[in-house]
Amino acid sequence: MASLQGIEQMREAAIDGRTDNVKYRQNELQKLHAALCNSADAIVSGISKDANGPEAGIDPEAGAEYYLAMSAVKGFYQSLNFKEATKNEYLLANGADNTCRRVGKGLVIIRPTTHTRFYSVICPIATAIAAGNCVCLELGDTMLNIDRVLKHLLSQTLDVDTFYISDSKLQDASILASALLVDQTSDSSPATLNQLPSNTSARAIAVVDRAADIELAAKAIVTARFSFQGTSPYSPDLVLVNDFIKSDFIEACTRYATKFFSAYPKMRKAQSNDNTATKKAMRDAEGKGHISVFGSNNFVLVDIHER
């Protein structure tokens, strides 16, 4: 169960305006960035083991995830301007309106997804801190190596008055009513004033227009579809292509997909219980002339003729 004392401590800090000060936010982000830098080897190793098993070496995609998270923290730090904030603070005293003033929600609760776990934890934490909020991270006891690293690192780095790790989901209605819940595990809940969900079950659709750069579009879509073992909830499930450039686009996708798997020959493909049914449906549709299938043992591109 989540400690009510820890939650109440953060709510008191939010009421006191502890996180309103820009210098305080900068210090927290700076401490976070420094801690992540000092723990780079443990973080990348943890991500790699979670993705490929305990005996696996360092995964290049683990390094990419680490870099993107670090870049996010740096970007949010650079977005804070102490001199400008100090100047705006005294506008009212000088008889001027402060129309650009922004304040945080107060308390932000983060419920992270397991996909790209490290980035899914660090990025929203940095976002919430930069916006002037106290942060509660829901991080239960799991078998993930990166969770153990994060629990130790974050609890030792960030201010205990404004950051808290809960080992279970928060269910208290009074807390949820006054906080912003960033729920990356939601299925269908629409966004509300107090909830920012991410529907991981929704289909991701890419559109390639006639005027698009075919090479760039093919490379981006192939990378998005096959990176992270093809498990990303945001990788394209369906690509809508202008008929005028369809042949060139398919040719470019085939070429880039071949290069992708040549560069990562040991990539472990995600398993799915639906593979057999999907393959059968594709064979039936191809036999009826509804689709054309291209690809190899590593990937398949399907051109749909009949919708």
Describe this entry's structure for a reader.
There is one protein chain. The chain has 11 helices and 9 strands. The N and C termini lie far apart (49 Å). The longest helix is centred in the N-terminal third of the chain and has 19 residues, at 60-78. It is of the alpha/beta class. The chain is 48% helix and 13% strand.
Which key features would you list for this structure?
single chain; five-stranded parallel sheet; 11 helices; 9 strands; elongated; 307 residues; 13% strand
Adjacency order of strands in the biggest sheet? 3-2-1-4-5
Q: State the end-to-end distance.
A: 49 Å
The percent range for strand residues is 5-15%
**Count the helices. How many?**
11
Averaged pLDDT: 86
Going by helix content, strand content and strand pairing, the class is alpha/beta
What does the largest sheet look like? Answer: 5 strands, parallel
Write down how many β-strands occur, each being a DSSP E stretch of 2 or more residues: 9
3D shape: elongated
Into which percent range does the helicity of residues fall?
40-55%
Low-confidence sequence ranges: none
- Rg over CA atoms, rounded to whole Å, is 23 Å
Please write the string of helix (H) and strand (E) elements. Answer: HHHHHEHEHEHEEEHEHHEE
Topology:
Elements: H1 4-16, H2 22-38, H3 40-52, H4 60-78, H5 82-89, E1 107-111, H6 117-130, E2 134-138, H7 145-157, E3 163-166, H8 173-178, E4 180-183, E5 195-197, E6 205-208, H9 214-226, E7 238-241, H10 246-263, H11 275-287, E8 291-295, E9 300-304
Parallel strand pairs: 1-2, 1-4, 2-3, 4-5, 6-7
Antiparallel strand pairs: 8-9
Helix pairs in contact: 2-4, 3-4, 3-7, 4-6, 9-10
